[in-house]
Design goal:
Translation Initiation Factor IF3, alpha+beta
Length: 251
């Protein structure tokens, strides 16, 4: 009798439990806030080659100093300029191979077949150090995009080897994301209410809420070119949030 009663109770409880977990309205709430990027960064590199490592580094340091002074003159804070990345490496060349006192200068492809007569007169087969390459990478952060158009010509004149695209970001992206997140939650609720109304049911309490999406323009690049008389323009970027909400349906 007791086992029979237990079996009857389980049969009556299990379906009811499954009905509660599967009953509800699931919606996705989305929101985006348009923000103008207000932080910009630029990476430039200076590269020189010379026979003396010390003299080559002096040239790179001199150019670096002039570039830093130029940015400070344009209003960039010295603390926003990073010049710590310096690299130096030697350049080796293999000696020429001579046959019967004539230097072989022409490089021949693997498909060509050439027969050379005579003996190899090269005595020193070791590679020899010929030059040094010294480079410095400078990263600059600034808040006024107008600086970018002003310094392009100056950097070229100062001997900059490479200028990267400008990278843009939003300084207070987390603040804007929180705003977008709250709006996404409201959007999810409005969707659920609309669905319940169309279905002819009454929306109940919130059963589950999950943050499911995030986007902020942390690093947005643009081309590193500018024409004389043309000002670089920027557009607003979206800071987006997304949530998944499940609401109960009242009986």
């Amino acid at each position: 009798m007791i086992k029979g009663l237990i079996a009857v109770c389980l049969l009556s409880v299990i379906p009811h439990g499954f009905a509660n977990t599967s009953t509800g309205i699931e919606v996705t709430g989305k929101s985006s806030i348009m923000v103008v990027p207000d932080v910009f960064s630029l990476t430039i590199s200076i590269k020189e080659r010379g026979k003396s490592a010390n003299k080559t580094k002096i040239i790179v340091d001199d150019k670096s100093s002039k570039i830093v002074k130029m940015f400070i003159k344009r209003g960039v804070n010295e603390h926003d300029i990073d010049t710590s990345q310096v690299s130096m490496f030697p350049i080796y060349e293999k000696p020429a191979i001579t046959f019967e006192h004539q230097e072989l200068q022409k490089r021949v492809s693997s498909q060509e077949k050439i027969t050379l007569s005579g003996s190899n007169n090269t005595k020193d087969k070791a590679s020899r150090l010929t030059r040094f390459e010294v480079s410095r990478t400078i990263t600059i952060s600034f808040k006024e995009l107008s600086i970018y158009d002003q310094i392009l010509d100056d950097m070229v004149k100062l001997g900059v080897s490479h200028i990267s695209p400008v990278e843009m970001s939003v300084a207070e992206s987390e603040k804007y994301y929180q705003q977008a997140l709250y709006q996404a939650i409201d959007n999810a609720k409005q969707k659920a209410l609309s669905i319940a109304q169309q279905a002819g049911v009454k929306l109940g309490t919130l059963l589950s809420l999950k943050e499911s999406g995030f986007y902020s323009p942390m690093r947005y690049s643009m081309a590193s070119e500018a024409k004389t008389g043309f000002s670089t323009l920027i557009t607003k970027k979206a800071v987006s949030a997304q949530v998944i909400a499940i609401y109960n349906i009242e009986p």
